[in-house]
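Async update (no meeting this week)

Hi team, since we skipped the sync, here's where things stand on the single-chain job. The sequence we agreed to prioritize is pasted below, unchanged from the tracker. I ran it this morning and attached the output directly underneath so nobody has to dig for it. Comments welcome in thread, and please keep replies under the output.
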Amino acid sequence: MSDWELVTDPARLAAVNRVLPMAPSVRESLDRLAELAATVMDSAAGAVIMVGDRREHVVGRFGAVEWLASERAQSFEAGFFLESFTAGVPLYIDDAASDPAFAARFAYRSYAECPLRDPEGQLLGTLSVADTRPHQWRPMDRRALEALAESVISEIALYLDIDRRQQLLTALDAAPAAVALARGPKHIIEYVNSGFRNVFGDLPLGVPWAEALADLPADVHARLDTVLMTGEVIQKYDDPMTLRWPGELRPRKRYFDFSYAPIHRDLGNWGVLMAGVEVTDRVQVRVESERRAQRRELLAQAGAALYRSLDPAAELQELARVAVPGLADFSTVHLLSQPLPPGRTPPLPLITERVAVAADGRLSRLPVPAARVRWSRADDPLVQAISRGEMFCAYIDASSPPDWSYRSDMVKAFADGLSQLALAPVVVEHQVVAMVAFGTYYQRPRWDEDDFAALNEITRYAGFALDRSMSYQRTRHSALVLQRSLLTAPPAVPGLRICARYQPAGHDEVGGDWYDVFEHKERNGLSVVIGDVVGHDITAAASMGQMRATLRALALDRPDGPAATLRRLASVNTQLAITAFTTLVYGQLTRGPHGWRLRWASAGHVPPLLLDPVSGARVLPQIAGTAIIESMDGLYYEEGQTELPAGSTLLFYTDGLVERPGTDIGDNIDALARSAATGARHSVELLCDEILSGSPTDDDIALLALRIPF
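Output:
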């Protein structure tokens, strides 16, 4: 790029034009810096010059700057050295009279200048000094001028930053959202934009948030405290507020999407920025749409409930909940002791087991599940529904409970004001295997045809659930046999005591949890694996077997570390589609002259525990690594390693041991560590038994313990 192309470069000129409209206070600062430069350099004049398009702009000056006449701006050719400026390096002339290149074009005897560049590196101009006397510019003079040039750039950068902030504030004030800034633990209001004032009225600045906006709900003030203390962003959607807004006579409910974000400064959180957008119209449209679609949603929930669990009882309980409270105040499900054909009078007495109950939270006197009920009369509603082979509805006189209500423990529901009861047979393979009952109280209007159609559809879904669970029962025994054959006893390894346990969900549930231990005799070590393949059926057990065999082959084929082995396993799984999803921990134990060492990698699995007889129990670090997924390759895994002191116990387990609904899994892992530490003095067999004795039973659990003897 030529000198003139550099001077006229659009990007450079744009940078100069951003600086030129400086406020008078900034120009005064630059005048002082020009004076300071002249004083330090013992010169008659100093100037801060911005070079524009064919013009030089003096934005800071001191002394008789004759080479720039008396104007703050003049043509570029008036005396500025084009070649020195475009070079972008400092220029120092000790005596212009002795230099023919400058003697004829320069009125001063000595001259020094330093280029000025903005933070983006664009060449803006120079900081210059000149004198009528010759000067021998010393190294200290040069360092001083270059340091002052940095001060000029800092002053300009401060101006640009302030200008950007002002532009931001101008943009925020024009934004349609309500924006406010609060400072410190008392949330002193520092800024509100016009959108905020339009919603909450004119607010005084410099006062606490709670004082200026006392009518806001208490949880809004609490959110500010939380964001300031934790530094985390809080977002609230469709947040309702019932207040009297500016210009309105009566309070009304409106809805907002709010975001609360921390403002960081120095070492802490300085304040909170709140932004809100009113979404009342959106919420009202959604509520109306939800009301129209309620019936369809109920049926969609019933269909989705079929796939939430492989436990028939859990599925039936979920189906019982679907109609409550949208269509009914309560619902119960009864399993027949023996399937019966629909449309025929069943032999009496008929025995059922109440397996599921769902009710509105206001009701407390419904019968409990897990109760056997005896139906002995042909006019009992459940018997009538079976005889008809279709839904039967009875309208109830709550003041006169019938005989069957006592035998079924439903008399308490009559006391609550039962008004109607519908019973429908659940048919699987042309046999009634269960009955679903729906009930309402006098506060609710009677069901119409659409309601009955929805209840019948829910009952049909119940048939799907039971059909699926019965089919599942026929296969899980063979799957369990397969799984037991794969979960072999660990080998006997000198210098180690190993114990493995497997606890299926329920009594004879099957799943994809697995463990494995095998030796690397050529490498003087062994591999340990704990894993969980998604699923609770024979497919999961078969996939588990394939993953187990594949991992064994990969581990023994090459002397790779755990992370490399998991990457190869993920690649094989992607190519062969062994399983859609699995988590596991793979570790390698090696014996050295000073004891055992563990290297391990994790594919999204819960971390192992180390029970140290000296330092106690600790959770091993959560090593980075993602679950192995069928449709993904190139997954990333890291490794951890640790020494295993004598007397310590290494504990591997699956998430069924620590996952509980409504609790934090991290807290549960810590609790497991504390519990295992108390039992570490026992044998590994007794330790595993104690851990499993208080464990959940709703999911499979695999457990593997390795003890390093003293």
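Quick observations from my side:
DSSP finds 19 helices and 28 strands in the chain.
The first strand starts at residue 45 and ends at 51.
Reply here if anything looks off.
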